[in-house]
Every structure is written in C-alpha cells, then in structure tokens.
C-alpha cells in the first residue's frame, strides 16, 4: 500500500514547476529589497531551518552577502532589541502559522529589517506580515514529514538568491522539475535502494554528512530518519565530523554521505567515504556522481543539476529511502509518534 508520504514525494515535480513558475516573475520585487539591504537573516525551525541552511550557503557563495541563521529565542524569550538596519529578514514556515516564527519576523521589522516570508500558507499570519511573501505552491501536504513543502521552500530560496544578485542562469532552476522526476524514477529502480534500506534496518543509527551547499540536505535527511524511522541520526558537516565525531562511525553506525555531482566539496566527500570504508565501516552515498559511488558500499543516484540547485533534487532519493525504511521497520511514515504538522514553541 502506498503511503501518503510516498504519494507526496511523487507530487514534487509538479509542485516545483508551479512554484518556480509563480516566483520567478517576483525577481524585481526581491531586487528592490536587495538594493536597500546588505545582509540576510534567516528565521526558521525544523525542516524550514534546514532549508535556511541552504539559503545561507547560496547567498554567501553566490551573492557575496553575509547571511546568518537567527536565534528566535532572542526575540521571543530574551526579548532583546538588535540593530537590524540594512538586514533582509527571511522567515520560513511551511504553514505560516508557527507563532514563534511570526513573532520573530515582526520583531525583526521592529528592529529595522526589511522582511520576506517563504511559506506554503497563502493568507497565513506570516505571509500577511511580510513586505514580500513568496508563496510556495506545494498544495496540501497530509503526511507529517515534510517533503514537497521542503523542496518548494528550496525553490523559493533559489529565487531569492537570484533576486539578491546570484550570477547563475535562471534556466538552471527551470530544469529542476524534470530532473526531480528522473531522480524519483532512477532511485526506485536502483538496486542500491533495498541494499541501503536493509543495512539501516539492522543498525541503531547513522551519521549523515555533507558540506557547503549540500550541508542542509544532510541535516534534513538526518531529521527525516529520526522523525519517520526513530533511529539515531547525527547530521554533521564533514569538516566537523573529522574533528572528532568520526569515532562514532563503525560497523553499527554507517555514514550516509551527501554531495552534488560537482563542486568544491565533492572531493572531500569522496575522501571521507574512502576513510570510512578503509576503517571497516560502511559508507553509503546520496548523489555525488560515479566518483562517490565508487568510494561507497552503495549509492543512490542524485540529480544532474549544477551545484547551486542540486539540493532541490538531492534530498529526494533520501526521502524515498526514509519512506522505504520506515515501512521496512513496520512504522507508518505518515504519522510519526509525537509530531504534529504545525509545531508551536514558546
């Protein structure tokens, strides 16, 4: 029986096409805000925070602007006023109803920031409070683990990057929906999928690692493993992993290594796979092309996309793997225990 999560994974090509088509015409609005700001502050929690990590790397690597992740507690718990003149505050929330995120964006505006919302909730409090609302067109998402709302957030952040001056072709973004459809088909046909699922079903947890543009994907994949499969999963930059936590990688704790098929962090990811395998543990690749696959015990295919747009497709084989793993463990991936679609924090 097909889970709702799997059905929504399959809806991503259409959701991405709708979202990209609707948001690319908004570039002039974003460029106007860019002209009046110099740095970017991302405000988010959960999967949206992992999307924000992608946004941060995209902005800093392709627009030359400083980008940081906000600590919403400064606004909502400590209630400290900061000087945010010249800051573009970008709040990201699937529903647009998370009170902490709505309050934090209002706080940023009161501190002098210009504001953008990224949400699937048209007419939501977050959308209504922002100067520019980038509404994703994912449609209703029923399964609790975010899939299409996450990838459409990444699409919105890609458009934001273009609006802030990223010197990359918009056509790279237009290619994404068709490539995601191909990734879905290739992943489900890959013999590596059942091999990796069986391997993970036999261990208590895994380390998930990537770097740079792919780091947010590693964090999101680790979150999905924890949410839907109840396994321990540590999401780390491979630079941080090498500083000590690599000691946890062993026969009972494999490494899932995430990378685009090209870019400056691919060589380091391959070297990490070789080190893990050389130590007698297992490395499983997600993306990274044939070079990463050759260094791993098994690897899922990634998208044939430029590095800057690769996260929009790179998470998809991970989503499929998680959905299969949850069912293999006898779990319902649609309704993880203890979780709701909208999470409120104080």
Automatic annotation (TrEMBL):
Its EC number is 2.6.1.16. Pfam families: SIS. Residues 30-170, 196-336 form the SIS domain. The keyword Transferase applies. Keywords: Aminotransferase, Repeat, Transferase. PANTHER family: AMINOTRANSFERASE-RELATED (PTHR10937:SF8), GLUCOSAMINE--FRUCTOSE-6-PHOSPHATE AMINOTRANSFERASE, ISOMERIZING (PTHR10937). This is Glucosamine--fructose-6-phosphate aminotransferase (Isomerizing). It comes from Actinomadura livida. The lineage of its organism: Bacteria, Bacillati, Actinomycetota, Actinomycetes, Streptosporangiales.
